[in-house]
Fold this protein.
Amino acid sequence: MTNSAPKESVRTLLTAIVDYAGLFPPAKLSMPEAVIKYATYKNSNYSWMLGRFVLPVSRLEEFRESARDFFSHDGKDAWHLSILPTDDIYETVRIVDDFNAQNAPGAICDSFEVKATSQEEIVTITNAIPDNFTNYFELPLTDNLPDLVSTLAINKQCAKIRTGGITPDLFPNTKDIIRFVRTCLAANIPFKATAGLHHPIRCFKHLSYEPNAPKGTMHGFLNLFLATGFAQEGYRPELLEEVLEEEFEEVFEFSEDGVSWQKEYSLTNAQLKALREKHIISFGSCSFDEPIEDLQKIGLL
């Protein structure tokens, strides 16, 4: 049974939470399929949960051909795009600028998602991208993470963590995720997550839609966002790891005023609002339907 009006705390936590990445595995939809789905989601009862459309810059023209009939001419309900660059960041920026000049305000590329493994890469890429874009740098969870995050902070950039994939080895362990979260919070760096977060609560499931796909433990997006919320309030790492590893949805209780875990630890709507605006911005998912369906099953939608 679903609620017609989600609780205020649910809306605060889930607004614009899913960046749609239907082009990427495991869904790996064609461009027309992904565009139609995104357009449908934008006109659904759950459009308030939908964030940007994620695509590689190499497919931007293909996207325009498939999606242009959906663009408004007055800028209302614009399609906001997050772009994965090629190795040539200057060429990427040129292509994106051309796209925006031709298609704004109906469709706007306003975010980049870039991989970086060194401080020098971060500085070079930052200098190449105009200031009107929001940039998320996907960082490796290695020993130099604090140095990389520090460089992001100095250059006023955002971070990105990969939280899964289509094989078990692509899922980082709990300690590494909490270390990433706390490092970003300490540096006051907003971040987003991507991959392996189709389900709200941590679970053991098939990792792709292929027949006989491997199974593995998948991190839950509610676990991640609420663990970040408790980290924001200064809770110890051991407790944050417990929140991230929680597999029982009933111990997360949402009210009109906030959310609690284990009836003992709570976050108010004001804290949830700060969490989403300043710290964890969104997560990328190749499915929008699965998060919605799971949230309906556990009674939050």
In short: The radius of gyration is 19 Å.
